[in-house]
Structure formats: structure tokens, C-alpha cells
């Protein structure tokens, strides 16, 4: 890889399924979930192994400005704040148009801020393979070999192998499946999980947006005229108000022809909900994961976390208990998908909004 490579970290998500730790003003990516560092800091460190600090940018919503600034690792010029979230196509397009103004020959590595990835050397090795294909004009995504029939991920069906079962053309994108379909994907062995990590020449990505999302591209080009000027912030607001909301997968990748997928050589988890802790942390002899002041009795296969005070459980199994200073969640492990619906209920009641 060379000095054309830039890192773009997407840090605008809400991490709702990690409530009550994850809140609007300090979501999952700004929490120390897998180490003492926040997940955003972990992602920055991973990229900084092979990309200079000054070439790593963060895209996040303005509501997160204070906690991101407080980390003290990014200069102001490397922070791109969205007035509000409007899906990944616009977040990535926003970063791309800014990068084009900095370096028209730039190559973008786009990474979510809140994934668990290790070891770093295998991540870098995989990115190097993708970089070579990006230089050829391809839009590159990275796929994870499935280890279980997971309903929470999108799947990518592999086409022709281009490099020793490491790089493939993409036959099709699959929506998040039900369990039965996920099992069939696993048995066939011709799909990878969609990691949400991308690599491309900035100009090639913008060509894709121009072709498949022309309305968004027009707004991006209009915004480009104001970069570095006194009215840049006002122009960002107009860009977001006038652009459509869609994902980069649906808006560009699923329609483009110059797309390839690289099979990841690293361990990966999107840390999507509390259950992910069972895959990335050590359990006690009863199969429990405990954090903070927790005492268990005759309890097994549970996740018990206390950030404030003592939590005790007796005779429970397959349960999630999370206690913060002002909120407590008790949830069956197979019901974490309902946390979003719970938050919608809280959102509707004025007296509960302070807990979000």
C-alpha cells in the first residue's frame, strides 16, 4: 500500500441493542466494550498501523461531537460531522467528496467504528489484497466466512474466483435471512457475511454514486463548491436535507458491475448486541460473563453486568442483566432484537426520554 490510502471511520450509529450502556450521546462506538479503549479508539489504532494519523478521518453525527473531541486523538480537520444521520451512502459520499478535494488520487478504506477485528497483521494483509484490486478500478468489499447461521447479517453469494479462493466476483447480495435460509447458505458454502468494510478509489466510488444515485451526486457536487469556505457548515445541512437516504449496499454496490469481494483472513465480529460478548470475552466455569460487582448463585450461561452497585442473581439461565446508574435491562438472550422496540416505547413517553 502507498500514500494514496486514506482511512474513513463511520462512527454515526446509535448501537441501540447495547442499551442501557449505549445512549444517544454516547453510543456503543464510544464505549470500552472489548478493552479499556473505546471501540472508536480501537478502530483508529488498527488503521494507524498502516495509515498515517493525518490520513484517517471520522464521520459522525454532530450530537457526538463532544465525546469524540474529548478522546483527543483526532485533529479538527479530520472530523466530518453530519447534521443528522441519513444512512451509509450519504455518509460515505460526504467523506468521498471531501477526500477528492484533498487528494483526487485518493483510495478510501471505509470501516465501521464498532467492530471487533484481530489480529491486526491479518487485517492489514487482507486490506493489502483488496488495495491491489481497488487500484484496478474495482469497488472492493470484504466478506467473513460464516461460522453459524446468523440472521443478523447480510450475505454475499460468491461468483467466479479471481485469486486462489481469496478474491471473487460477486454473484448476488442476500438480505438478512431467516434461520432456515441461513442454514442453507452455510451448507452450500458459497456465501460470506457482509462485513460493511469497503475499499475503492475515491473517484470510482463517486462515479458509482453519479450513475446509481444521481440526485445525491448532484448535491455532493454542489456541496463541493463550498468546502473550505465560510458557509461550509450551512452547505452540509443543505446536502443532508436534499439527499436521499439509502445504504451504500443497496444504493451502489448491488447495482455496480466493477465489484469484487475479498475473503477476510482476520477474526471479525460486528458486536451487534449483548450476545456478542460471549464470542469475544472469557466465561466463568458456569458459562456466565460477569462485569462489575456481580454475585451469581446456581446460575449459568448468562451475561450479568453492573456499572453501578451490586447485582445478584439466583437460579437464572440464558439471561442478560445490565445495570447502569439509572437503568436496568433484564432480557432473555434470544430476545435482544426486541431492545429496539423497547426503546421506541420509551421514546413515546416524555418521562422516559431522559434514559435514552
From TrEMBL:
For the protein in the UniProt heading, the enzyme class is: transferase
Q: Which family does it belong to?
A: Belongs to the mannose-6-phosphate isomerase type 2 family.
Which InterPro entries does the record associate with it?
A: GMPP_N (IPR049577), ManC/GMP-like_b-helix (IPR054566), Mannose-6P_isomerase_type2 (IPR051161), NTP_transferase_dom (IPR005835), Nucleotide-diphossugar_trans (IPR029044)
Give its E.C. classification number. 2.7.7.13
- CDD domains, per the entry: GDP-M1P_Guanylyltransferase
Per its record, the protein catalyses: alpha-D-mannose 1-phosphate + GTP + H(+) = GDP-alpha-D-mannose + diphosphate
* Species, as recorded: candidate division WOR-3 bacterium
A Pfam match: NTP_transferase
Q: What is this protein called?
A: mannose-1-phosphate guanylyltransferase
Which GO biological process categories is it annotated with?
A: GDP-mannose biosynthetic process
Q: Which UniProt keywords apply?
A: GTP-binding, Nucleotide-binding, Nucleotidyltransferase, Transferase
Q: Which residues form a coiled coil?
A: none
Gene Ontology molecular function:
GTP binding; mannose-1-phosphate guanylyltransferase (GTP) activity
Which residue ranges does the record assign to the Nucleotidyl transferase domain? 7-285
Domain spans labelled MannoseP isomerase/GMP-like beta-helix: 292-345
Q: PANTHER family attached here? A: MANNOSE-1-PHOSPHATE GUANYLYLTRANSFERASE
Amino acid at each position: 500500500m502507498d500514500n494514496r490510502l486514506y482511512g474513513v471511520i463511520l462512527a454515526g450509529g446509535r448501537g441501540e441493542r447495547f442499551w442501557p450502556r449505549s445512549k444517544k450521546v454516547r453510543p456503543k462506538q464510544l464505549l470500552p466494550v472489548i478493552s479499556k479503549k473505546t471501540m472508536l479508539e480501537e478502530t483508529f489504532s488498527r488503521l494507524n498501523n498502516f495509515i498515517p494519523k493525518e490520513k484517517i478521518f471520522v464521520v459522525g453525527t454532530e450530537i457526538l461531537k463532544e465525546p469524540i473531541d474529548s478522546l483527543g486523538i483526532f485533529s479538527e480537520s479530520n472530523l466530518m460531522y453530519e447534521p443528522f444521520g441519513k444512512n451509509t451512502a450519504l455518509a460515505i459520499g460526504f467523506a468521498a467528496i471531501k477526500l477528492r478535494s484533498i487528494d483526487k488520487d485518493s483510495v478510501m478504506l471505509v470501516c465501521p467504528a464498532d467492530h471487533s477485528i484481530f489480529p491486526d497483521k491479518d487485517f492489514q494483509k487482507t486490506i493489502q489484497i483488496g488495495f491491489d484490486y481497488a487500484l484496478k478500478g474495482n469497488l472492493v468489499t470484504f466478506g467473513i466466512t460464516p461460522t453459524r447461521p446468523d440472521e443478523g447479517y447480510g450475505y454475499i453469494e460468491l461468483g467466479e474466483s479471481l485469486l486462489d479462493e481469496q478474491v471473487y466476483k460477486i454473484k448476488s447480495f442476500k438480505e438478512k435471512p431467516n434461520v432456515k435460509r441461513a442454514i442453507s447458505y452455510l451448507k452450500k458454502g458459497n456465501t460470506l457475511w457482509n462485513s460493511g468494510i469497503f475499499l475503492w478509489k475515491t473517484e470510482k466510488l463517486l462515479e458509482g454514486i453519479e450513475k446509481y444515485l444521481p440526485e445525491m451526486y448532484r448535491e455532493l457536487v454542489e456541496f463541493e463548491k463550498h468546502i473550505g469556505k465560510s458557509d461550509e457548515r450551512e452547505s452540509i445541512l443543505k446536502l443532508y436535507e436534499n439527499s436521499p437516504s439509502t445504504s451504500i449496499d443497496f444504493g451502489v454496490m448491488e447495482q455496480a458491475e466493477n465489484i469484487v469481494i475479498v475473503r477476510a483472513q482476520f477474526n471479525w465480529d460486528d458486536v451487534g448486541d449483548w450476545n456478542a460478548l460471549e464470542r469475544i470475552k472469557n466465561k466463568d466455569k458456569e458459562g456466565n460473563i460477569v462485569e462489575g460487582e456481580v454475585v451469581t448463585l446456581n446460575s449459568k450461561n448468562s451475561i450479568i453486568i453492573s456499572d453501578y452497585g451490586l447485582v445478584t442473581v439466583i437460579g437464572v439461565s440464558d439471561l442478560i442483566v445490565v445495570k447502569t446508574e439509572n437503568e436496568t435491562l433484564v432480557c432473555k438472550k434470544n430476545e435482544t432484537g426486541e431492545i429496539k422496540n423497547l426503546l421506541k416505547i420509551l421514546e413515546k413517553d416524555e418521562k422516559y426520554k431522559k434514559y435514552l
